[in-house]
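Translate sequence into structure tokens.
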Amino acid sequence: MLSFFRVVCLGLSLCTLGNGLIGDAEAAVSTEPAPLTSPLVIASGSAIVVDMADNRLLYAANADKVVPIASLSKLMTAIVVLDAHQPMDEIISVDIHQTPELKGVFSRVRVGSEISRHDMLLLALMSSENRAAASLAHHYPGGYPAFIAAMNAKARSLGMLNTHYVEPTGLSVNNVSTARDLSKLLIASKNYPMLSELSTTHETMAKFQNPPYTLPFRNTNHLVYRPDWAIQLTKTGFTNLAGHCLVMRTVINHRPVGLVVLDAFGKYTHFADANRIRSWLETGKSSPVPPAALDYKKQKARQSGVTAQNNSRDQNGIAD
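Result follows.
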């Protein structure tokens, strides 16, 4: 098996973010990829893989490309909620009146009904429920505008300098980031154990009140149901412009790994890329990418001015 120790160590080359030394939650990811023997080809438009034990870079492709991130935004939403230290058992109402992006967007959750902040956060992370995410922002100290400001302040504090949020759900194309920035968010997420618990929950039966009703919810990442994956945190995302997106913290080869894949082609392509990444890290090989997915990737690259040559350099210096 391919060893995780065959990577470039950051050592003293870690840079600083702002003033002072970098803490674990603000750790920089190396810009030098691991010297693996065979190039990895994935379907997603950009990606990054990091050893979460010491923040070593294992793989990168277009990692600094700024793109819409869809519901991956909800991971920052959750962190801002937890940073506020509000009572998790407090009953709050479903409120979306300051989130115009939700106009006309279907949801089974009824505006005005109530549920605990804990369960609202669970639905936002596990099932990517947009009204739940918006409601959390509406019940933040200082209100909705203060919540959005806190999202951007947190991003800056983590060194996510190419990230910007305008709302808490990810429906807006103006919620943007990069694979590298999102890897910093994954590093920070280790300090929030509740994120792991909630985001990897398989399913729940949510009980609302005023009026009373019950709804079933399932995890949007089907990999959490597979025993061969040890997923510690996950968030999925999709819009037409963002494509299918995925962030995960998991364990591969007995090592903690963080992975980010953005702008994948099909409904399951981001999950297939996660499997390709795992196979590549374990064996140095991965399954081929379907032609349709590669065509989509090339088309999006042409639209954004990203060339195949740049993509190859980002991976490991070897052309496809």
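Note: Residues 1-26, 307-320 have pLDDT under 50 and may be disordered.
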